[in-house]
Amino acid sequence: MKEITNDFSINQELGRSVFGTVYKGVLPGGGGMIAVKRLAENAPVPFGITFETEVTNLMALKHENIVELVHYCHEAQKKVVQHNGRYVIVDVIESCLCYKYLPNGSLDKHLYDTPSMINWDTRFKIIKGICQGLHFLHKDLNLDTERGPLIHMNLVPNSIWLDDNWVPKIADFGLSRLFGKEQTRMYTVNVKGYNGYMAPEYLYRGEISTMSDIYSLGMLILEITTGEKNCAVSEDRSARKFVDNVHQNLKTDEQIIHKYPSLGPNGLQQVRACIVIGLKCVEVDRSKRPTIVDIVDKLNGKRVPILDLA
User: Fold this and answer.
1) pTM recorded for the entire structure
2) CA 238 – CA 234 distance, rounded (Å)
3) CA 129 to chain centre
4) Is 286 helix (H, G, I), strand (E, B) or coil?
5) pLDDT (tens digit, 9 = 90+) per residue, 19-38?
């Protein structure tokens, strides 16, 4: 892994998250490229659990909007470190996950006000792709098996990767939870995630359900639609100020057109639908949020009562 990433060079870096850094790996002999994620030693969940969770949950997933795991390695090495003024030998575990190479890197590099900022058509394509990927995780996995939905638990901009055609791929499954067939929720005391994307019931009660992902998805949709960053702070960990600003600044067609002056009627309808979806997804009351089926139907132009305009 060191050889194909030039010793994990910063020049090879494609993106990073709390779970690790992703590098471009160049295979020898003209064998092409892969993406190599080197897991972080200070990840928010124990090192081995992160590796095992991501490998086991990803190996069975095959979908256009889910990142494709092609290889992994996990090895322990002896290393001399200083501890309490003495040098000791410890076992250091190095873990890497290898994915199909995605040349446009992670979404956060293109989302906000940067020279590479993407146009509305591409943004809408990314929103639809993420929703289709989440539909697969929440609904399609359990059609022919005894498994329930897979809850991702980490839907944030740097966990969405983009191929050369801007097709989004959901990545970073280190926090994911696989439910049983009839299971609808679970609880944890070990709450981990990014401020601004964690649902209030998870953040304050440790409650996990499909609605945890829907809340995060809503924040993603609002960020992609507005091009503005969700800047949650310690006293506003669910980013309610960001939500209020979107509600105030993009509630009329005139405000939307000012944001996207080149939009035609179809584009205007798409932006309007995405704002409605995003705001409903981030309702504090989980029972008021739409399901991923509702969201995909709305994006495909169908009438969905829970997402009707107020």
Assistant:
1) 0.85
2) 9
3) 12
4) helix
5) 778 888 888 877 788 888 88
